[in-house]
Every structure is written in structure tokens, then in C-alpha cells.
Specification:
12 strands; single chain; four-stranded antiparallel β-sheet; 279 residues; five-stranded antiparallel β-sheet; alpha+beta; elongated
């Protein structure tokens, strides 16, 4: 129990009441190897929580009780994913629960549920307890509603998408002869060679706009998976200039920016200017 966060502790207490001595109290030899995480993705007021149990140890754990919190202010919506070997118990008091046979050594399991979680509802976490090989338990960090909204929001700004497949990685599509670009390069670096200019002497043969407009707006992945459109990369200034969004924009689920996020002068929340593409 020592490893459980304060919120988890509250959940554990509630669970102990619910579990009514079903063995969850034994906490001896809880392997540090079982890691529980929760991610949340909002679509309007409905948030899907995915609980992942990763067994990084050398022995399978079995006879597992899994619970995701129905946080205060939120209401149960539905159980989304019950993997093979698991039985859904549905909503039980202030948790959504499952019984899971086992998670093999090196394996993982994901269980998902949805809550109707309006503005102001409290953070959510998950709790897992197992009986074998020795009884143990673990709980996840808490995830706030704001984080889940940000996760599920429309993506705006290059960095909303190109954080693991970086712009430098994308430049490799320029072929084996493309100049080597440092992984942390921002779009300003690309524009150094791919900027707009009628005379391209000394510059890359194509403007960045020529490359990215077609490559994104004709991409199934950009259009369908990310629901991408012009305003994924642009904001229009008060004078009608097309501004380029580089940093990830934070806002509501449509990513209308938070008041402080893009101000009238066109600055992103990080303080980095968003780029005015007018010369
Ligand atoms: C909403 C997500 C998203 C955002 C935001 C985004 N991209 Fe992309 N980008 C993609 C996806 C998806 C692809 C892969 C397209 C394909 O091959 O289907 C891609 C591909 C690329 C490529 C490779 C093009 C090629 O020739 O194949 C470049 C370069 C690129 N992006 C640059 C940018 C720049 C610069 C920005 C910001 C101005 C940006 N992207 C914003 C999702 C995004
Ligand atoms: C030092 C100059 C330079 C920089 C900086 C640069 N590029 Fe390039 N890029 C080129 C040149 C030159 C080509 C043409 C390569 C060729 O045809 O062999 C090219 C081609 C490309 C292509 C292929 C376009 C096509 O024809 O389909 C992509 C995509 C690309 N660059 C993306 C990027 C991105 C993204 C960045 C920033 C991370 C970037 N480049 C930075 C010089 C540069
Ligand atoms: C993937 C990101 C991305 C998307 C999506 C995108 N653009 Fe762009 N756009 C760019 C980049 C990059 C530039 C070049 C910036 C520069 O040269 O400084 C650009 C430049 C422009 C410019 C030139 C502005 C000027 O003053 O020179 C216009 C106009 C424009 N885009 C319109 C659109 C429209 C309309 C759409 C939707 C149909 C769209 N863009 C979608 C990335 C994007």
C-alpha cells in the first residue's frame, strides 16, 4: 500500500469497503514490477479511460481485480473493452470493475470504460489487486479531465503531431541526398531552405507550402485519423494574414485556443511567435 498515491489511497479505502474482505487486504510482496497506467481521451463530455496493466516481472500474476474510479462529478457511461480472460462487473459503487484471470510475465492487458465527465469532475485513477503468486496491489497516477480533453482535442500546430515522427524525420522523405537535419529542428530550419521565393537559386527546389499542402490535405491519415484541415496549421490574423502554427495549440475540444494561448498579435502560449507567412 505504501506505493499508492494519495488519491489511490482514497480509492483503496473505498475498495476495501466494497471488497468486503475478499482478500484484497493482503499486500505482502507486491512486486514493483506491475505498472498500472491510465490514459484519458475526451470527446465532448464523454471521456474514455484506458487502463493498462504491464507485468514487467518474471512471474505471471493471476486472480486480478481491476478498478477504474468513477470520480466525483462524473457518471458511469459504459464498459468499452473487456479483454479475453476478463469478466466485466460493470459499475460497482464508485468504480468500474473487472475480474481478470492473469497477466503473463512480460505481458500486458488493457481494459477501457467511459464516463460522462463534465467540467469540474475530479481526476481519475485505477487500482489493481492480485492474489497470486503472492497477493499485491498497484495503482496508477491520476489523470485530470483537462488532460483528457487536450488528448482528445483537434490537433493544431506542427508539434501536436510531429513529436515522435519529428520534422527532421519527415525531411528524410527528401531522399538519401537530403541535407542531414538535427532531430530538434523547428519549422524555421525547414523554411531556411524551403522558404517562399520566386528565385530558388541557393534554396531547396520546392517551397515548404508546395510540399506540405499536398502531402497533408491528400493524406487519409491526416484527414481521417486527425480530422486535419487548414486550421490545423494556420490561424488567420486580424489583418487577414495566414499565420503558421508551429507549437501545439491548447484549447477546448475543437482547439479554439485558450484565451492566453494565441493572443491578438499571434503568439503561442510558449512565447514562441507563430510565424507570419506574409513577407
Ligand atoms: C494533425 C497532425 C499533423 C499536423 C498538425 C502536421 N502534420 Fe505533417 N504529417 C502528418 C501526417 C499524418 C503525415 C503523413 C502523411 C502521409 O504520408 O499520409 C505528415 C507528413 C509530413 C511531411 C512529409 C511530407 C511528404 O513529402 O511526405 C512533412 C514535411 C510534414 N508533415 C511537415 C509538417 C509541418 C511543417 C507541419 C506544421 C506546419 C505539420 N506537418 C503539421 C500529420 C500532421
Ligand atoms: C539546407 C537546406 C535544407 C533544409 C534546412 C531542409 N531541406 Fe528539405 N530539401 C532540401 C533539398 C536540397 C531538397 C531536394 C532534395 C533532392 O531532390 O535530392 C529537399 C527536399 C525535401 C523534401 C522532398 C520534397 C519532394 O520533392 O517531395 C521534403 C519532404 C523535405 N525536403 C522536407 C524538409 C523538412 C521537413 C525540413 C525541416 C525539418 C527540411 N526539408 C529542411 C534542402 C533542405
Ligand atoms: C500541414 C500544415 C498545413 C496545412 C494543413 C495547410 N497549410 Fe497552408 N501553409 C503551410 C506552410 C508550412 C506554409 C508556408 C509558410 C511559409 O512559407 O512561411 C503555408 C502557406 C500558406 C499560404 C501562404 C500565405 C502567404 O502569405 O504566403 C496560404 C494562403 C495557405 N497556406 C493556405 C492554406 C489553406 C487554404 C489550407 C487548407 C486548404 C492550408 N493552407 C493548409 C502549412 C499548412
Amino acid at each position: 500500500m505504501r506505493r499508492i498515491t494519495i488519491l489511490g489511497g482514497i480509492l483503496v479505502l473505498l475498495l476495501l469497503v466494497l471488497a468486503g474482505g475478499a482478500g484484497l487486504r493482503q499486500t505482502t510482496a507486491a512486486p514493483d514490477d506491475v505498472v498500472v497506467t491510465v490514459t484519458g481521451t475526451a470527446a465532448r463530455a464523454i471521456i474514455q479511460y484506458d487502463i493498462t496493466i504491464s507485468n514487467k516481472g518474471t512471474a505471471a500474476i493471476s486472480d486480478i481485480y481491476v478498478a477504474g474510479l468513477i470520480s466525483s462529478g462524473a457518471k458511469f457511461d459504459s464498459v468499452v473493452t473487456t479483454p479475453a480472460g476478463a469478466t466485466s462487473l460493470g459499475a460497482q459503487g464508485n468504480v468500474v470493475a473487472w475480474l481478470l484471470n492473469r497477466v503473463p510475465a512480460g505481458g500486458s492487458a488493457t481494459l477501457s470504460y467511459k464516463l460522462n465527465a463534465p467540467d469540474g469532475s475530479a481526476p481519475v485513477n485505477a487500482y489493481v489487486a492480485w492474489k497470486a503468486p503472492t497477493a499485491g496491489s498497484a495503482s496508477s497516477a491520476a489523470i485530470t479531465r483537462e488532460l483528457a480533453v487536450d488528448n482528445g482535442a483537434a490537433k493544431r500546430g506542427c508539434m501536436a503531431c510531429h513529436y515522435s515522427v519529428t520534422l527532421a524525420r519527415e525531411s528524410e522523405r527528401g531522399g538519401p541526398n537530403h541535407p542531414k537535419i538535427a532531430n530538434e529542428a523547428t519549422v524555421d530550419v525547414c523554411l531556411g531552405c524551403h522558404k517562399a521565393a520566386a528565385d530558388r537559386t541557393g534554396l531547396a527546389p520546392k517551397m515548404l507550402r508546395t510540399i506540405v499542402h499536398a502531402a497533408h490535405l491528400n493524406s487519409d491519415s491526416f484527414i481521417t485519423r486527425y480530422k486535419g484541415n487548414c486550421f490545423t496549421c494556420h490561424e488567420i490574423s486580424e489583418t487577414g494574414a495566414w499565420l503558421l502554427l508551429y507549437d501545439k495549440v491548447h484549447g477546448n475540444q475543437y482547439n479554439v485556443p485558450a484565451a492566453e494561448s494565441i493572443n491578438a498579435k499571434g503568439y503561442a502560449s510558449s512565447g514562441r511567435p507563430i510565424i507570419d507567412v506574409k513577407p
